[in-house]
## 1
Amino acid sequence: MSGSLLKLEGVTKSFGNKEVLRGVDIDVAPGQSLVVIGGSGSGKSVMLKNALGLMTPDKGKIFFDGEDVTNATGKTREKMRARVGMLFQSGALFDSLTVWENVAFRLINTEGTKRKDAKERAIETLKKVRLGADVAGLYPAEISGGMQKRVSLARSIISEPDLIFFDEPTTGLDPITADAINDLILEMVRGLGAAAVTITHDMASARKVADEIAMLFEGRIIWRGPAGDVYQSENDYVDQFVNGRAEGPIQPAI
Amino acid sequence: MTNPLQIIGRVTLGLFSEIGRLAVFAGRVKMAAFTPRWYGGEILRQMVRIGFYSLPVVGLSAVFIGAALALNIYEGGSRYGAEQFVPNIVVLGISRELGAVITGLMLAGRVSAGIAAEIGAMRVTEQIDALETLSASPYRYLYAPRFIAALLTLPALVIVADIIGVMGGWLVSVHGLGFDSTVYLRNTVDFITRNDIIVGVIKAVVFGGVIAVMGCYQGDRSQAGATGVGRAATLSMVGAAVLVLATNYVMSTLFVEIGL
């Protein structure tokens, strides 16, 4: 396990008769930005939920900083989650809380920080994602989708995690906002020195934020290499995916 | 062609699985509710939503039930010349049975379905996953506060329903049936016992637990989409209402057996 912050070994996961993950082997080093690409239904989100401990794999092992967290509960799981941030595809902001309460949620409810101090830190973190103090008191429903993504990003970085997961960070955003989110992800990840695992099928985003790219297909990692090599992978599946062609070994999901 | 025995077997297994899942869920909610850590702000917020905001619907239901009860008892009692027992039977019926049941049924609709829809929406928009990644257990942060709030506010609501229900009966009796106000109220106060009130309050606590657990359980299991959330709300309301009536019968039998 030396050198890996997160490592998945032979992870499988099925739902009824449907095998979604068929033995995923993947690892991320500290400070490394890994992007996992793959089509709809390829198992990217399920892989991520297993890595986060939101699902338990049927078989295989998951290690975080050398410790087996496959079936971790209680303190072990909390210790891991204290070092992990997550940006959900939908933002997953809590509707009933204001923007600053969302950002400071972990500080107030897990770390026991006083509300006044937590609010100050939340506003500082909002500034890092280019949001002013004027949005701090608004509710998620009162801000745009791009702003919600920024707030969610602020929530994921406020505790300065060692590893951040990004689930489709640019989905549903216009190209300019998506590029701004990519810039922020890069800035935050590099600023914190954190490792990042991003799952996406947006190749512009993948090229921009990745040190390495891996492709998940039919529940297995079928290719992994430096981000710059993805267009010369010499793998028919990767080639078809990154060039967005309907013809090739991958059948369109329609 | 499907064998009928297979269908019966599948339905039976499905029913027992569902009961098992609900029991495990309820156990985890109770564990979270009775052990630290508690989110005081959330509990207070839920007490306001479940208790305070339910006052109008509970009060209105109780006044009409009390009024209708008085009319029917008067009509039935007059066949035997027993009209004078209207205040006694109204207060007994309201305090031991109807106050709690009406409150339970109204909250099965207003609160249980509301909780299921809210938690269901949180489930399908990944807010519950987000809670877990922020090291906050949904059992402690979402479900236990609703459970505790329902346990605490239902008894208070039932006492309010009892008072308003009795006043509904008093209104009709005094202004429609010719009863003397002072005599009616004195008969009511003299007849009711501490046990009658305790019975209603115990039922209220149980109903509170049932209503909150059903709402949280159905919301937690909600499937994606508007249909999934709507279905969770419906299942929660129906399940809570049936369980309120079923547990009411079991408790009434038990209380009669032990002489409470």
## 2
Amino acid sequence: MLYREAGQFKTSYAADQAMLPILQDRIGILVILLVAFVGIPVFATDFFMGSIMIPFLVFALAAVGLNILTGYAGQLSLGTGAFMGVGAYSCYKITTLFPDTNIIIAILLSGVFSAIIGVIFGLPSLRIKGLYLAITTLAAQFFLEWCFIRIGWLYNYNDSGAIEVPQRKIFDIAVTGASATPMVRYLVIVSIVAVLSLVAANVLRGRIGRSWMMIRDMDIAAELMGIRPLYAKLSAFAFSSYYCGVAGALMVFMWLGSAEVEAFDINHSFLVLFMVIIGGMGSILGCFLGAAFIWVLPIVMRGLPSLMGLDILAATTEHITNIVIGVLIIFFLIVEPHGLARLWQIGKEKLRSWPFPYASS
Amino acid sequence: MELLNSIFVAPFVDMAAYPDFLIQVIWEGFVAGVLYSLIALGFVLIYKASGVFNFAQGIMVVFSALALVSLHEAGVPAWLAVVLAIGIMGVLAVSIERLVLRKLVNQHDAILLMATIGLTLILKGVGELIFGGEPKPMITEQLGLPTGSTDWEVFDGIVIFQHIDIAAAVIAVLMVMALGVFFSKTRIGRALRAVADDHQAALSVGISLHQIWAIVWFASGIVALVTGIMWGARSEVSFALEIIALKALAVLILGGFTSIPGAIVGGLLIGIGEKLFEVYWGALFGSGVEAWFAYVLALIFLLFRPQGLFGERIIERV
């Protein structure tokens, strides 16, 4: 009833090419942005912002990055964690070498280094594809992890081997470091994620994004139609790694505060991959849904036993969470390979024709 | 100049100066390589028959070995524990085929890979839930596996051979031979090869795909159990093995996804290569090169020969 585009006519080319052609969608996005920028900072507790929203946004951004590569360009990658690490370590180097740099610029710049590394490890994708490529991304994962441990220059030869986030201020407000409040960090991160997601959504429906999808759907046909695989694949790697790098920098600077190599290990690569699978391959919305689902599920699972008055060990709930996520992945792959985003799509279609489902075409 | 020397000259001088140590290093690498080969063998079996890239092979190794050890801890005699562990792998194979593979027939490779990643999580969760997460010693003696070691005096030095390592190599050879006979002489084995060649043609001559898939998962479950026993006997049974098992993926790239000889040769190459590299060239990079040597070798190899050592040529049709 509410969600219907009847009466909305496109009268110009600009309207025809709008990202959100339906009025209700535009209103929906505005409401979400209002909630994110005003509602949550005003009403939510520090715990909610610091421990739920910030990690959720970090992982959502990483999932956007992986989804660009896997969902849109069709190149399976298992090295997301390492690319996030590259972003985090380069951000750390930038901000310690040039302490006067604006921290936001440092974070955005660190993605560039991640993109360069991503292109280097994307080079094999020109010769190989599919499963073989997935394994070569493991090479990136393990090699970079080793670099983070062995190359002391990366963490300024700390004794602990960890990168500690220094305090940085913008307009005299602490943005990073121990004294930065969750609200400030949340606002910074939500702005960056919102802008980058908007950019991603537009790149994906533009010329570059369409060339990625052509490569994904059938690379030889795409080549025959004039898409250059070299540019298409490497640009997908570069874009994807840029997003992962920024997500990694945000993860350390806005959320963890300090990080060792374990923060970027292969389990994190898998975690982001699960978010993409469950959220929906080839959907920006899916990245957010998947990240919310995978991040919130363990928190709920931890809380459930005490709510029900059961006394279960923390380790046990963790194992059960593992099992539940595994079952859900297989369930989604069997029942709905396009993930939560597709379910949302189906729901919207149903709403459109409600209450006369048989009347629609 | 010094760098060139330490890359091209010094390691070889070292090798020539202490040949006994060189033999020891090669032997260690050989044994590690045998174990990589065994894991890769499990991958190849499943990939050939069903086109599924089984990411869960590593966790299957851990799972089966843990089941065996835990059964024995619960008071079951060793031989019965082995039988029961094989039974568990059989039940697992049938249920995986029933609940997962059957529903995902004809799906894209990547989808199947991700399903096995999901399977990995489930097995890991179930394993930790039932058997506990802490490492356990393998019941080497109860299984009748040899312990102790033999010294071999050569080139004014000694090379130490652990008996369990020799046993591992022998068992691996026996198992590959058994698999070879199984594939070429038995009815089921021939059906397996037919399925590997062409699913539809196999179906049309009355071979049941479901049955074959269950059998092949069972077979790689047994391979996993043997690998788990051998690996457990060398160190201990723990979930850390899973990460090491990922190296078998690099082995697969070297050997090709569909070739059993490839899995073995690839495993030995990587096992020996990484040990030699770690010992003689590792100092150049700082230690720990073993963690990535296999993958980087595979990556470089792929650039020149994407189909692997023994893989089938990739022919693209439009």
